[in-house]
Amino acid sequence: MTGPNLSEVPEVELDGTDSRSHLDPAALRHPDSLKWTLYDEGVIPMWVADMDYPVAPVILAALQGRLTRGLGYPQLMGDPLLTRLIQEKAATQGLTDLPADGVALLPGVVPGIFAAVHALTAPGDGVLTMLPVYHPFHLSINDQRRVVQAAALIDSGTRWEIDWEALEGAVTPSTRLMLLCHPHNPTGRVWDAEELDRLRDFALRHNLYVCSDELHADLSYAEAPFQSFAADPRVRGRTVTLTGPCKAFNTAGLGIGAMLSHDPALIKHLKTAVGGLMGHPSALSITMWQAALQEGAPWLAETVAYLCGNRDFLQAFLAERLPWVKSYPVESTYLAWLDLRAHPQAGEIQQVLLEQARVAIHNGPVFAPDPQKADYQGFIRVNFATSRALLAEALERMAGVLGGEVE
Ligand SMILES: Cc1ncc(COP(=O)(O)O)c(C=O)c1O
Description:
This protein is of the alpha/beta class and 407 residues long. The chain is 38% helix and 14% strand.
């Protein structure tokens, strides 16, 4: 593990009343919150990918304004303002010259994953994924009677990497589609320029469609700007990119996303296949995303800075207090993927942490195609998008139960 020592990781001070550093668990535990109510009072929830921070004031103001204008049907043919803002944003990530009819709104990003699998493959076809991965990837394949063809990422000793041989080995003549998670949930990797190029070559060589879920792109800690998979014109005609505001702006409860492609026929094909089943995004979600794109950048920059400090604190804590835990600093987003297999109770690590440490995390097997098989048992995904104080409390509790040394 690399990074600063624990004592060298100050909390990022944004201002004296910063709403990220002053969080009250009693206020967070309200009945509308899935994250805070699934487990008993007293448990610190670090599982589902919501941040504990309040919504950006600019978004709240826009929503209040929208309420005063009424709640009739929004622009169902594609909101022109939001479409333009998405085009402009996509261009900064390499998706230049995206046509307006290459942008279609969705009620969320997961419906886009299901739509891609449904429209671009037939029952029995193979769909490629990399393991571990955000669980709806596998649900979208299994539930629609396609076949998961998975290649496990490898732990290189410094980061999680694509196993190119395993990827080649997973492809069969029935493979039609690759589901890419970029940035990758749960390892936090942002695939670099070399890896993206190799993935593009791979997709071209095997004549695959690619659905690139780029929902976490705005939470990148890298200095280099995030680059979309379809930034390269060679793969634009075969790629659907999925994006949305909910991870960066903590608005999952409003539900909205978009699918993007330089080939409008591809978007039309997905819409025709499942558009009627999905429904339209809500009026409030459209207003929210407009506000996020128009005025949300300063709030987002502060949030990324705060999260980056939490990431460094987590890494430093592990290095100092739980040195046997394997973990690499994530390059994006607020989800850390920790390898606790060295612990004697790795086989029931989620229960141990829940019942003894009173910390709720996501269990590793969730991120494999068949959670019953217990692949990735001993791994956990930890959501560190909370105040430094709550993060420190959760880590102290974990260290108290797990201990600094293992046999
Ligand atoms: C990679 C990825 N895609 C999609 C989603 C969910 O998107 P939505 O809530 O817009 O369906 C998540 C949620 O954590 C995610 O991590």
